UniProtKB/TrEMBL annotation:
Residue ranges of every copy of the GGDEF domain listed in the record: 320-451
Superkingdom in the source lineage: Bacteria
Pfam families per UniProt: GGDEF (PF00990)
Organism listed in the record: Devosia yakushimensis
Cross-referenced PANTHER family: BIOFILM ARCHITECTURE MAINTENANCE PROTEIN MBAA, DIGUANYLATE CYCLASE DGCP
InterPro entries reported for this sequence: Biofilm_reg_signaling, GGDEF_dom, Nucleotide_cyclase, PAS-assoc_C, PAS-like_dom_sf, Rev_trsase/Diguanyl_cyclase
Protein name in UniProt: Diguanylate cyclase
CDD domains: GGDEF
Length: 458
């Protein structure tokens, strides 16, 4: 075989037996980097046997696959570009014939473990041919300079894009922290979780730690966990979305409420991933509960208020009761006038507590006025039990008690009315009539309104 003086001279490669300068390795390796491939080899093309002059990234199975492809490329007269070999360690391959001056024909082989699209593979082949296919070193060097310039521009564009993404991510994290929102996803193939910082903060796990789904499930209350699992299973089965509010206890023991949303991602009709948001709504939940409490309960005594009492009374047609009892404190005005409102408020609290104790099975115990209370007993309560409750209320509230250094004694008058299908206002009037009859009888007693032709009270 003729020694390749011209080719060697162009490539900076000395005649056989002399040391190859590092400039050749550096130059060809730079071209490999510019073209974005795993490896490259420069070999004689005159024989199917691969006699390599220079190589990078060639080892093990790659060498075997590359030798087969080189032999195939050496048989042709033009470039051989394979976007995807479909097998082996070499998936992308480009074999480019190279001739420098009068030297031996060479074959430049580019390869990569990843396949390329047909368009990308063709472009890489063209670029390689432009770099090494010229008849002058000046032209090749100019092409390398152009590639380096384009690569520098692409690298700068990528750097700018990454910087923009980092700024956007920082803004998102700040906004998420302010809104107490985090993004989550679950890979359904292994139930592995990916969280943004907001979700870590919500559950109080260390940011960036590996958290399993089983660990998060232990944070849910029993009711919330069951509701979430039902909603999640339904969404996966139907490839749909879900949303619910759930109660959790963080790993540090804090009780919180969160709003959980999820979207199921599918591939070929099969659910593969769930992702969504989790937002801390503890303050919102507490405010809503407080607002609802204020709308339905008496702040001083903790009993249901008049609004809740009237709403329940309006449901008599669909939710019958056994009896309505009205209780009014005796001598309360005298205590207020004598000892002041602070002690009067203590009397109301004590009376409310005793009223609850006297009728623990009541459907509703409410404060409906200044010192007036109402009790609704269930429809299964017998007349004898109802009369016993009325007597117990009188007895319990009449017991003396000590408050703010004063021994005090209250009394209670109770009026009882039984429903007979009449409208709720009529039932209330009958109980009120019985209450005034108890007061007229000397207070600290109870009276019952009996419906009938004569409407008696005794």
């Amino acid at each position: 075989m003729r020694p390749m003086q011209s080719s060697a001279a162009f490539l900076g490669h000395p005649p056989s037996g002399e040391a190859r300068p590092a400039a050749l390795d550096a130059r060809l390796d730079r071209v490999r980097q510019l073209l974005g491939v795993d490896g490259a080899a420069l070999a004689f093309a005159g024989s199917q046997a691969m006699q390599i002059l220079w190589q990078a990234g060639v080892s093990g199975q790659i060498a075997k696959d590359l030798a087969e492809l080189h032999a195939h490329a050496a048989q042709g007269t033009g470039p051989l570009v394979i976007a995807d070999t479909g097998r082996g360690a070499v998936r992308f391959y480009a074999g480019i014939p190279v001739t420098f001056g009068e030297g031996e024909p060479l074959l430049l082989s580019l390869f990569d473990a990843r396949p390329r699209s047909a368009a990308m593979a063709g472009q890489l082949g063209i670029l390689a041919q432009e770099v090494f296919g010229g008849d002058s070193e000046q032209r090749s060097q100019a092409m390398i300079v152009r590639l380096e310039s384009e690569l520098a521009e692409r690298e700068q564009a990528i750097a700018d894009l990454l910087a923009t993404r980092r700024r956007q991510l920082e803004l998102f994290e700040r906004a998420s922290k302010t809104a107490r929102i985090g993004v989550w996803e679950c890979d359904l193939s292994d139930n592995s979780l990916t969280w943004s910082n907001g979700v870590y903060d919500l559950f109080e796990f260390p940011v960036g730690s590996v958290v399993t789904r089983e660990e998060t499930l232990r944070c849910y209350s029993d009711a919330s966990r069951e509701a979430m699992e039902r909603a999640r299973a339904k969404a996966i089965a139907e490839c749909s979305d879900f949303s619910l509010d759930a109660e959790i206890t963080t790993v540090k023991g804090r009780r919180r409420w969160m709003r959980l949303t999820g979207t199921v991602e599918t591939r070929n009709g099969v659910a593969t991933r769930i992702f969504g948001m989790k937002q801390d709504i503890t303050e919102e939940k507490l405010l809503a509960d407080r607002t609802r409490y204020l709308a339905e309960f008496d702040v001083m005594t903790g009993l249901a208020n008049r609004s809740q009492f009237q709403a329940r009374l309006a449901e008599l047609d669909t939710r019958p009761i056994g009896a309505l009892l009205l209780a009014d404190l005796d001598n309360f005005k005298q205590i207020n006038d004598t000892y002041g409102h602070a002690l009067g408020d203590e009397c109301l609290k004590e009376a409310a507590a005793r009223l609850r104790d006297a009728c623990p099975a009541a459907e509703l115990v409410a404060r409906i006025g200044g010192d007036e209370f109402a009790v609704l007993l269930g429809h299964e309560t017998t007349p004898g039990q109802i009369e016993a409750v009325a007597e117990r209320i009188v007895a319990e509230i009449g017991k003396p008690f000590m408050r703010l250094g004063q021994m005090l004694t209250l009394g209670a008058s109770v009026g009882v009315a039984y429903p007979d299908g009449s409208p709720a206002p009529d039932l209330f009037k009958r109980a009120d009539t019985a209450l005034y009859a108890a007061k007229a009888a000397g207070r600290n007693t109870s009276r019952t309104f009996h419906a009938g032709p004569q409407h008696t009270v005794n």
